[in-house]
Design brief:
- The chain is an all-alpha fold.
- It has one domain: ABC transporter involved in vitamin B12 uptake, BtuC (Orthogonal Bundle), CATH 1.10.3470.
- It has a two-stranded antiparallel ribbon with strand order 1-2.
- The protein starts with a helix and ends in a 13-residue tail after the last helix.
């Protein structure tokens, strides 16, 4: 393959990996606090629908983005009230949230199915976009891609070098010790859950306002589930998460590349590649149980009761 083709593949992988990166980053922060939210798919769908509807009816893309994040946060607030305040099972509550979000987004967006709009266009950063190879890849993207770069950098700094990150990790590892130090465990976990919901909504907005500026039912195509696997694949480390998101993004477009190269395989089988990659990754991770146990937040998915 020549350099131009490699560059185009890298650009496509970055675009395809961006929604995975956004939603997985929110889930990583959420899980670092000890909360396992399996409702990512439902929140992402609600974000995609709300974002498209907001932009479609107002003509303002950024209003759509904000509405998408509010929709994601509202869904995550519902999850937080049930699992953190009422101590319902986090796995069951998350699954119910996905089912609820899938149905509600289809119902509310039924009148918009097939509608289109002019979404976010690439914005070339003067000077930087002229750098050979890296310029078009990193500095000629739409504004939501640039926003994802900023969010990753800020999240990595906050988690690694600030009191907020230390508090979040403490709550995820040993909430009772954190509570004894005066940390409001439920409040911290609820804040992390809301952040995860906002990121899921933003990921949905990217799909309906930038990647494919339109709305259709179930347009996330399982990306919420892939994001959950991606967090485990990254061992709850943001650096690995970035790499994994773009690798999964490349796997998502690989079937198109193979069809273009004339590979004589059913397109339906080729379209299974990203999901097959997810299964393979989970199997490989599960084969190293000790490493996974050491990386997993100790209180992940466990309810907290200050009276215990």
């Amino acid at each position: 393959m020549d350099a131009l083709l490699i560059q185009q593949l890298a650009i496509a992988a970055l675009k395809t990996g961006t929604p995975l990166l956004l939603i997985a980053l929110g889930e990583l922060i959420c899980e670092k606090s000890g909360v396992l939210n399996l409702g990512q798919e439902g929140m992402m769908l609600m974000g995609a629908m709300a974002g498209f509807a907001g932009a479609f009816y107002t003509g303002n893309l950024w209003f759509g983005v904000m509405l998408a994040m509010v929709a994601g946060m509202t869904m995550s607030l519902l999850f937080g009230l049930l699992s953190l305040k009422l101590n319902t099972n986090q796995v069951a509550t998350g699954l119910a949230l996905t089912i609820f979000g899938t149905g509600l987004s289809a119902f509310l967006g039924s009148s918009l199915v097939g509608a289109t709009l002019d979404g976010f266009a690439p914005f070339a950063i003067p000077g930087l976009s002229q750098i050979p190879f890296l310029g078009p890849l990193l500095f000629n993207q739409d504004l939501l891609v640039y926003l994802s770069f900023i969010l990753v950098a800020v999240s990595a700094y906050v988690m690694g070098y600030t009191r907020i990150g230390l508090t979040l990790r403490a709550v995820g590892e040993n909430p009772h010790a954190a509570n004894a130090l005066g940390i409001k465990v439920v409040a911290v976990r609820l804040g992390a859950t809301l952040f995860g919901g906002a990121m899921a909504g933003l990921a949905g907005a990217y799909l309906s306002l930038a990647y494919t500026p339109m709305w259709m039912e179930n347009m996330t195509a399982g990306r919420g589930w892939i994001a959950l696997a991606l967090v485990v694949f990254a061992s709850w480390k943001i650096g690995y998460l970035v790499l994994g998101a773009y690798l999964f993004g490349f796997a998502s477009i690989l079937h198109l590349v193979m069809q273009g190269m004339g590979v004589d395989i059913s397109p339906n089988l080729l379209a299974m590649i990203p999901y097959l990659a997810t299964i393979i990754v989970m199997v490989l991770i599960s084969s190293n149980a000790l490493k996974q146990k050491l990386a997993t937040p100790m209180s992940l998915g466990k309810p907290f009761d200050a009276r215990v």
